[in-house]
Write a structure and sequence with these properties.
369 residues; alpha+beta; Rossmann fold; Tumour Suppressor Smad4; 2 domains; 6-stranded antiparallel sheet; 25 strands; 35% strand
């Protein structure tokens, strides 16, 4: 991966504080990019032509090395295209669960909706190359580029000096209790977890761009989980569950559950209850540097389930723990204009933020009354 200078900071001085100006975050190439990863939504017939057109432009016109997932080329509509075969033969392929390409890709191009960008994020557990996302899906909150003018936009990105927004991710560690003789005993409607033996499973780790969701799963009982902040128990969540989200994820599931919307440049973690059994339980924002831990309460009547950006869903039992912190590896998203303008345009176009019927101005006769 080419060496990148991701920050060209300009600050605003406010008394003794230095406040980062979001518009000053720029992407500057140390040397021209030579390789690109193209992520395409699988089995979407509407993306076939844009995918072929883009890859042909990158390989034939820009002479770039194009990386593509092997399963994309296994699509019969692509594999059977003889006219496209010359271009395909120049591709470098990989499998998402076997190959690490983090050191070979200069930047990423996503063709699809927001889910495509989330998937691209999941491919990189550490440093993520800059991402250029084209709006070819259903929502497009995270995909600011229009494919109609992709050539001029790509030229601008390759030449460098474009705005970026650093979308923070969550580093999640799931520690599973591995005592072999663990048993669930139902007693007076309460499921207890007992067992002997020692040892724990090796913790699984995930990088999450939107949110971690802990919910009650298929159970009819309320979820009952303890929430710790830097080792201190701050509350017990009783309800359908809890959402721990990044600022990017604040406009996804969290906002549907009543959370505020946070600009992605704000260093924060949002905690949002899902249908809490308490009228006073409202979403809260905590500093990005804290460590959160979620565990089943000792009084929980059932297990819980956890998912990460809607994927890797798994059951959480007594003795298991979920530790959440802000990751050291954000996702550098290339902006169409700048971080502020792009974000507010997404709010207006995708969520119809503050859309209302306008009042008519008063006539001179009406003003008299």
């Amino acid at each position: 991966m080419s060496v990148l200078i991701l920050y060209s900071y300009r600050t605003v001085v406010c008394n003794i504080q230095h406040i980062q100006d979001p518009a000053s975050q720029r992407l500057t190439w140390n040397k021209p990019p030579k390789s690109v990863l193209v992520i395409k939504k699988i089995r979407d017939a509407g993306l076939l032509q844009p995918f072929k057109e883009l890859c042909t432009f990158l390989t034939e016109v820009k002479s770039m090395i194009v990386y593509v997932e092997r399963k994309v080329l296994e699509d019969p509509a692509i594999a059977g295209d003889d006219a496209f075969r010359t271009t395909m033969n120049k591709f470098c392929t990989f499998r998402d669960d076997l190959d690490d390409i983090s050191n070979y890709v200069d930047f990423i191009i996503c063709l699809g909706g927001d889910g495509t960008l989330l998937y691209a994020s999941s491919l990189f557990q550490e440093s993520v190359p800059p991402v250029m996302a084209f709006h070819l899906g259903s929502l497009g909150f995270l995909t600011p580029f229009n494919f109609d003018t992709y050539q001029s936009q790509l030229n601008q990105v390759i030449e460098g000096n474009v705005s970026i927004v650093l979308r923070s991710r969550l580093r999640v560690r799931v520690q599973k209790d591995s005592r072999e003789k663990r048993a669930k005993v139902e007693e007076n409607g309460v499921i207890l977890t007992n067992g002997d033996g020692e040892g724990m499973h090796k913790a699984a780790q995930y990088q999450v761009l939107n949110e971690v969701v802990v919910d009650r799963g298929p159970s009819s009982y309320l979820s009952n989980v303890d929430l710790f902040l830097d080792g201190h128990l701050i509350t017990t969540v009783q309800g359908d569950g809890v959402i721990v989200s990044t600022p990017t994820g604040s406009t996804a599931y969290a906002v549907a559950a009543g959370a505020s919307m946070i600009h992605p440049n704000v260093p924060a973690i949002m905690i949002t209850p899902i249908c809490p059994h308490s009228l006073s339980f409202r979403p809260i924002v905590v500093p990005a540097g804290v460590e959160l831990k979620v565990m089943l309460s000792s009084e929980a009547r059932n297990t819980a389930w956890v998912s990460f950006d809607g994927r890797k869903r798994q059951e959480i039992c007594h003795g298991d723990s979920i530790t959440i912190t802000t990751s050291c590896f954000p996702v550098p998203s290339i902006c169409f204009r700048d971080p502020v303008t792009d974000w507010f345009e997404s709010l207006a176009q995708c969520l119809h933020w503050n859309v209302r019927k306008k009042q008519h101005h008063l006539t001179s006769e009406e003003e008299e009354f």
